[in-house]
Design a protein that fits this description.
Number of helices: 0
Largest sheet: 7 strands, mixed
Shape: globular
Structural class: mainly beta
Strand content: over 45%
Number of strands: 11
Length: 119
């Protein structure tokens, strides 16, 4: 079974940085699409960034602050200038066939890594 495992979450002050990692059980080039979603308490799960083989898409709220990129067996999310509203559980997602800025488009999900940003 394909596995994706997140790491790198933690607690930082506003304006700080974190780099999330998502280790995959098969090379990342097997996935047409990979990305990150997040969910804060009491809120719906929302897309953060999605990486197709040839294109990246970002939520407006993180554009210019977050960068998504792949290496052979790991997906990363570099987060800079973090804000309290970025606090959430962050999930790594992957799919070998589909790509959309929607949770339903992804077959594989990790367990999540918590990010907490203090003001």
């Amino acid at each position: 079974a394909v596995e994706v495992v997140e790491s790198g979450g933690g607690s930082v002050n506003s304006g700080g940085s974190l780099k999330l990692s998502c280790a995959t059980s098969i090379p990342t080039d097997n996935f047409f699409c990979m990305g990150w979603f997040r969910q804060a308490p009491g809120k719906q799960r929302e897309p953060v960034a999605v990486s197709r083989i040839d294109h990246q898409t970002y939520a407006d709220s993180v554009q210019g602050r977050f960068t998504i990129f792949r290496e052979p067996n790991t997906l990363y999310l570099q987060m800079r200038d973090l804000k309290p509203e970025d606090s959430a559980m962050y999930y790594c997602v992957a799919d070998s066939r589909r790509c959309a800025f929607l949770p339903g488009a992804f077959e594989h999900w990790g367990q999540g890594t918590q990010v907490t940003v203090s003001s």
